[in-house]
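Exercise 3.2. Students should predict the tertiary structure of the chain below and write it as structure tokens, then compare their answer with the key that follows.

Predict this chain's 3D structure.
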Amino acid sequence: MCCVLLLVLAGCSGGGDGAGGGVAQRGGSEDLAATATAAPEDTAAADATGAGGEEGTAGDATGAQVQRQDRQLIRTATVRLRVDDYEAARANLTELAASTGGYVSESTENVNGEGNRTWTEGRVVLRVPAGNYSGAMEAVTAQGEVVSRTEGTQDVTEQVVDLQARLDSLEAERDRLRELYQRANDTEEVLAVQRELSDVQTEIERVEARLQSLQRRVTYSTITVELFEPSPDYEPPETSAWYDTPLVEAFLSSIDGVVVLARSAVVLTAYALPYAIAVGVPLTLLALLYRRRADLV
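Answer key:
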């Protein structure tokens, strides 16, 4: 009997331990499932965070590119100068442009006159390297008296960056179309690719022309110089009394007068001769007829 009771108690203890082990085993399985479920979510969240970080980095890189880009500045100036000698000032400006590595892009000149007075005014447009702009302005203002002066600066950095990015994109598109053109087998496909390629090439040339224009204006600053001479004061002509004329000069003047009178008489005769012939001949004939009748009577 005692042995039977001991066996029963041992079985109950084993069953309880087995049940407890089963519960523990089920609990461990649930924990693994939860961990497995949470792992993809954590991975997705980590991927989303990484993607967001990459986008932010790309945006920051674009902004940093614009900030690191050297500022593209177009500098222009207009100076109006009063000068004593227009030709000398214009020659000095031409020499100044050449010495700074630039050139004269435009030059106009106008000579004014009134009575016995003349004065010149004009305009000279200088294109000088941007690095020599300040020195060139100092030399220009030293050519005369500054009446007015205007300077301006235009920042075209963003335009240059945008045009360059647009050009890179168009060139990549052109390369892709060229590859498609090489692989095209159908005539219709070839013509379609040719049209697209022609449109892209036209757009590339337009963007390149605009970009080059901006780069030239950035590389060479423009200085417009307006030059003018002051109009001289009116000076009446010198006159002298007739009795102050020297004898020899008076004699020569009288000879000139005689020559002019004789020339005038010859010219007058030449003008009057046709009229004399046209009127005199009929009158002479009438006079002869009248005299003959009078003799007959």
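Discussion points: Residues 2-68 form the longest helix (67 residues). Confidence is low (pLDDT under 50) at residues 1-59.
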